[in-house]
Design a protein that fits this description.
single chain; 2-enoyl-CoA Hydratase, Chain A, domain 1; three-stranded parallel sheet; 11 helices
Length: 251
């Protein structure tokens, strides 16, 4: 089995951050911490003008939080800490002074939808359906909700949050504003992403930095908000409903 990783390299002035986990690119706490750090470091690296966020593997961009860690939560403190992982990544993306281009090659579930939503410009393949599955297990997309709502609007976010068993196709996500372009294959996606990122590197960095500040106006309270949301999820994951549901999934 391949080992999980977060790695970064630079092509020209494009910083490429890639994460991978053999369980459909689900993200346990240690990988979320590494991803947060990689985004933060890329943000202060003078050799980088634009960032690309991507995952390894083929048909799954990110399956959300680590199921094994979710099942192991046994108190409110560890629950909040667990859900804070995605909060920290989203806040790192929000605060990063550089534009982040999302490269979504496959399905995004739960926290994966949150990561895609927190990018500044996101491209995908036709296989990149999305689902907010949290309500199905008795929780809710509380931590990623602000990022998803900011990107696609309250109505669309409410739709996929309530209809927690359904995948919504990439075309739907594009219509709602999550994806900007959809490609037939991952190879075509990679070409499109790098061509666009390289083009952005020719622009005035100060102008792009100011644009990003403008885009994220109104989110200045997210450090506190997302921690509060992590606390809600940390409490709900201990409910009898969620514990029983997780047991059924595990078995």
């Amino acid at each position: 089995m391949e080992e999980a990783y977060v790695k970064q390299h630079i092509e020209g002035q494009v910083g490429i951050i890639e994460f991978f986990h053999p369980a459909h690119n689900s993200l346990p706490g240690d990988l979320l911490a590494k991803l947060t750090d990689a985004i933060t470091q890329a943000g202060i690296n003078d050799s980088i003008k634009v960032i690309v966020l991507r995952s390894g593997g083929d048909r799954t961009f990110c399956a959300g939080a680590s199921f094994n860690e979710l099942v192991a939560i046994d108190n409110i403190e560890s629950g909040q800490q667990f859900f804070s992982g995605f909060a920290n990544v989203i806040n790192a993306m929000r605060k990063c002074p550089k534009l982040i281009i999302g490269r979504v090659q496959g399905k995004a579930v739960g926290g994966g939808v949150g990561l895609a939503s927190a990018t500044d410009y996101c491209m995908a393949t036709k296989f990149s359906a999305i689902k907010l599955s949290e309500l199905h297990v008795g929780i809710g997309p509380f931590v990623v909700g602000p990022a998803v709502q900011r990107k696609i609007g309250l109505s669309a976010m409410s739709q996929i949050a309530i209809d927690a068993d359904s995948f919504y196709p990439a075309e739907w996500a594009q219509q709602k504003g999550l994806y900007t372009k959809i490609f037939e294959t991952t190879g075509e996606l990679d070409i499109g992403v790098m061509e666009f990122a390289t083009q952005l590197c020719q622009y005035n960095f100060e102008a792009m930095e100011e644009l990003k500040k403008m885009f994220w106006t109104g989110t200045e309270n997210w450090d506190e908000l997302l921690q509060e949301r992590a606390g809600i999820s940390g409490r709900l994951v201990l409910s009898d409903f969620t514990k029983e549901t997780l047991k059924r999934f595990k078995s």
